[in-house]
């Protein structure tokens, strides 16, 4: 990646009577940055920023979020335009390459991905070592990490050709492994990928095909799921992407890095929120119990939070949530589901929360996870598969960000410092003298 940051002046500060200057740089969109890479060397001080609320970890040209305006761009294209007009394969190409593909480039990339969807036969035995009641995300953490044991010929991160193959294998095999995790958890036989189907419809047939009868992919549902995957593909330096970058900074192989990202995404504060949000709506159970739960969410002494609400960056409506709500209505209409109590609760909860002073003052809006659970359940997926679907889509962003980091000439191993407040230095005392 060629750096495109531009000098934008300096800032200076007085540290212990000494004036110190730091360079300010600007990017395409978003706040300028102060380069503090020499801050400790020049001042003898560390900076402290738990949760990295004010810290940029890297330069990136992939995704941009304006949290105040509720804007999300993939390589400069607004997310709603991509969700409306593009498809998974084309957006994956865009995130990896930086430009939308020509027809030939699209067809070649689609072919490359399609012909990497199968997994090694021995992989099925590996995955069958899990208990049948294992959470599918637990299976995904282990199975994706194990890919480096099966595809050792594409783990040399210094070889651009091996990085290309590993990238295609990762994107291509995630649906196959995700479908295997689902089939394994419901006690059904694994279904092989088919080369005559598109990416998302192939995933759906691997999940829902049973040998006892033919399976016909519903195009409306496949298009809705494809749109949902696009919404989840990338999101700047979120927790799981930062995990992938930190793991990759040690030159670990890409399969291990993606497995680390999956583990981080599983947390209910992050990708696990879609599963938690649906469980929350089910727990609320009826519209008349919403005020009770809104009060719990506002009560500092109560750990309960409205899952699917709030965001570190969005202090406006998450643009993905709007598209997700629309996809939710499309799926329910296509399935002729007229009465979905959880959707009624979600719509009323959103209305009440957005009028409540607490949520208004803290700028808490529905995020992508608020409506996704209702949609995914209507598509036929069990709740414990929701974060697996998030990981399937986010794999594109993770591998694009990993590639960008590996190709960044300024890339170094990530090694944060700390402020130490533990015991002062002291000498050891033998146990018989304590
Ligand atoms: C994702 O980073 C990404 O981009 C993530 C993601 C992606 O695509 O990768 O967008 C995907 O992870 C979406 C978020 C999914 N998580 C949830 O929906 C879980 C519920 N949300 C919260 O846990 C919370 O909003 C976070 C974790 C999402 C953000 O936490 P922050 O930025 O650290 O904010 P905070 O916890 O400091 O909250 C600020 C205030 C606090 O009150 P005060 O201490 O200031 O009084 O808002 C309150 C919080 O108590 N608050 C909530 C709330 N979220 C924040 N109160 C009630 N319900 C909530 N959901």
Q: What percent of residues are in strands?
A: 5-15%
* Terminal-residue CA separation: 58 Å
Mean pLDDT: 95
Q: What ligands are attached or bound here? A: s-citryldethia Coenzyme A
Q: Judging from the principal axes of the Cα atoms, what is the shape?
A: globular
Which stretches of 5+ consecutive residues score pLDDT under 50?
none
Taking all Cα atoms into account, the compactness measure Rg is 23 Å
- How would you characterize the largest beta sheet? 3 strands, antiparallel
Sequence of strands across the biggest β-sheet: 1-2-3
Individual helix count? 18
Question: Your description of this structure?
Answer:
The structure is a single chain. The chain has 434 residues and is mainly alpha-helical. The chain has 18 helices and six strands. The protein has a three-stranded antiparallel beta sheet with strand order 1-2-3. It has a three-stranded antiparallel beta sheet with strand order 4-5-6. The longest helix has 27 residues, at 160-186. It is globular, with a radius of gyration of 23 Å. The mean pLDDT is 95. Bound molecules: s-citryldethia Coenzyme A. Residues 51, 235, 238, 269-270, 273, 297, 305-313, 362, 364, 367-369 line the site of s-citryldethia Coenzyme A.
């Amino acid at each position: 990646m060629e750096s495109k940051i531009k000098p934008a002046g300096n800032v200076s500060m007085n540290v212990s009577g000494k004036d110190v200057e730091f360079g300010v740089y600007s990017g395409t969109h978003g706040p300028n940055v102060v380069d503090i890479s020499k801050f400790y060397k020049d001042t003898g001080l560390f900076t402290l920023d738990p949760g990295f609320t004010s810290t940029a970890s890297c330069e990136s040209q992939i995704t941009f979020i304006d949290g105040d305006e509720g804007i999300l761009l993939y390589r400069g294209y607004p997310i709603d335009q991509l969700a409306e007009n593009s498809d998974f394969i084309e957006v994956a190409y865009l995130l990896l390459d930086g430009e939308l593909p020509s027809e030939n480039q699209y067809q070649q990339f689609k072919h490359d991905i399609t012909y990497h969807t199968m997994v090694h036969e021995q992989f099925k035995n590996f995955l069958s070592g899990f208990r049948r009641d294992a959470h599918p995300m637990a299976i995904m953490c282990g199975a994706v990490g194990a890919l480096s044991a099966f595809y050792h010929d594409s783990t040399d991160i210094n070889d651009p050709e091996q990085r290309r193959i590993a990238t295609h294998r990762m994107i291509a095999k995630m649906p196959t492994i995700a479908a295997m995790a689902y089939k394994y958890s419901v006690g059904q036989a694994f279904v092989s990928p088919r080369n005559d189907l598109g990416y998302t419809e192939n995933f759906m047939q691997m999940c829902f095909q049973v040998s006892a009868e033919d399976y016909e992919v519903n195009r409306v549902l496949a298009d809705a799921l494809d749109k949902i995957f696009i919404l989840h593909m990338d999101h700047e330096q979120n927790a799981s992407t930062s995990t992938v970058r930190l793991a990759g900074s040690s030159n670990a192989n890409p399969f291990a890095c993606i497995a680390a990202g999956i583990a981080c995404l599983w947390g209910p504060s992050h990708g696990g929120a879609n599963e938690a949000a649906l469980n929350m709506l089910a727990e609320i159970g009826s519209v008349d119990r919403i005020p009770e739960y809104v009060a719990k969410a506002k009560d500092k002494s109560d750990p309960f939070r409205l899952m699917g609400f709030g965001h570190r960056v969005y202090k406006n409506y998450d643009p993905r949530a709007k598209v997700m709500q629309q996809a939710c209505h499309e799926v329910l209409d296509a399935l002729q589901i007229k009465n979905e109590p959880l959707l009624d609760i979600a719509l009323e909860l959103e209305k009440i929360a957005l009028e409540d002073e607490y949520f208004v003052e803290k700028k808490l809006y529905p995020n992508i996870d608020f409506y996704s659970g209702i949609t995914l359940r209507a598509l036929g997926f069990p709740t414990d598969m929701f974060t697996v679907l998030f990981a399937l889509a986010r794999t594109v962003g993770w591998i694009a960000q990993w590639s960008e980091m590996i190709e960044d000439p300024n890339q170094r191993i990530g090694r944060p410092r700390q402020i130490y407040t533990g015991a002062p230095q002291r000498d050891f005392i033998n146990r018989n003298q304590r």
